[in-house]
Amino acid sequence: MISIRSLPLLLILTCSIAMARGTYQEPADFLADTFGVEPPSPEVVWLRGETRETTTSILGHRYPSLRVRYWGDSQRSAWILEEVGKDQPITVGLVVSNGRIERVKVLVFRESRGWEVRHPFFTDQFRDIGLTGELDLDHNIDGISGATLSVRALKKLARLALYLHSRIPPVDDAP
Prior knowledge:
alpha+beta
């Protein structure tokens, strides 16, 4: 039974959870912030053969589609990816520049906990991280107590974006 004294605390906790869920930035706005007013046309990386196997290995499950959309080219690309934290997908925008993470932004968070991953104190850790030969991140990412599954989801998405960026065909410099 809930006492009258605990009611304000319960209300505060309920409101904070409700406020943590939500859309922090629309994907179109993320792309506009990344590329300016007019982002490039989307391209795709097909998940076939080794690419599909590696993607499955990174995520720990099969990607739900046969292709992944991105914007940009082999020098700089933006990805809007989703991964389940505990029960719900987390939508994340990632920018990769020359094989290194330039930016990570949580766009939509649907979980009841772990929302702290949306803050710059966490996402800024990904800046300038690349992949090792074993497809692990080449720097450690500090976790957040109580947000382990959300942290794990963002780390997987960073690895996936870096790997998929490496699968983009090189830009043809010929005139």
